[in-house]
Specification:
With 191 residues, the chain is of the alpha+beta class. It has three domains: 82 residues, no CATH class; 31 residues; 35 residues, no CATH class. The protein has eight helices and four strands; from the N terminus they run ααααααααββββ. A four-stranded antiparallel sheet has the order 1-2-3-4, with no helix packed on it. Helix 2 runs antiparallel to helix 3 and helix 4 crosses helix 5. The two termini are 33 Å apart. The model has no long low-confidence stretch (mean pLDDT 84).
Length: 191
């Protein structure tokens, strides 16, 4: 982000927190002619939930391209990595609202101004109606996307063999590999 914009946002919204968009970070790396192997490692590092996994991916990046690692670390990982984020980081790409509306209004641009305003009103009403109905049908404390992800994880969990060690620890087997999970300490060695 341009420094004057960052300064303006910090001045007007002093409590806001700005994170770095992964798409733009990748584009910067591509312009710097960074190897695709490093970009793939970064994509994995950014998306993991645990700091330990993040550190492993970043270690791999260091081995392949120390210069790129140093470049990435110029901005704190809290601004671009899910496992280091100070808040919740989602897998949504948001874009400038003007760009979004421009693409929606392509067909209305040729209309006279009053007809274009009617078009915009109808479009917004449809969106709000649809989203309100979706929200009223939702009974979860998480987003629909998160709910779907949880269902996938639950289905995967039913394929694991779990053997209790004691009241807090369990041995988990997956495809012949054994892991230890400690629910009390919230640690596990399977990532």
């Amino acid at each position: 982000m341009h420094q004057s914009i960052a300064y303006g946002i910090a001045k007007v919204y002093p409590e806001s927190y700005h994170e770095i968009c992964m798409y733009h970070l990748e584009q910067n790396l591509k312009r710097r002619k960074v190897k695709s192997e490093v970009i793939k490692l970064l994509q994995s590092a950014v998306r993991v939930y645990r700091r330990k996994e993040f550190d492993l991916y970043m270690s791999d990046i260091t081995k392949v391209d120390k210069k790129t690692y140093d470049y990435l670390m110029e901005e704190p990982p809290e601004r671009w990595a899910r496992s280091c984020s100070l808040g919740r980081r989602y897998d949504m790409l948001t874009t400038n609202i003007v760009e979004s509306m421009n693409s929606v209004l392509l067909e209305a641009r040729v209309l006279p101004i009053l007809r274009m305003m009617d078009f915009i009103q109808v479009k917004l009403q449809c969106w709000f109606y649809k989203r309100r109905n979706e929200a009223e049908e939702t009974f979860y404390d998480v987003s629909c996307w998160v709910e779907e992800e949880l269902k996938k994880k639950i289905d995967l969990a039913f394929t694991l063999n779990v053997f209790p060690v004691d009241s807090w620890r369990s041995r988990v087997e997956e495809e012949g590999i054994t892991f230890l999970v400690d629910l009390n300490k919230r640690i596990y060695d399977c990532f």
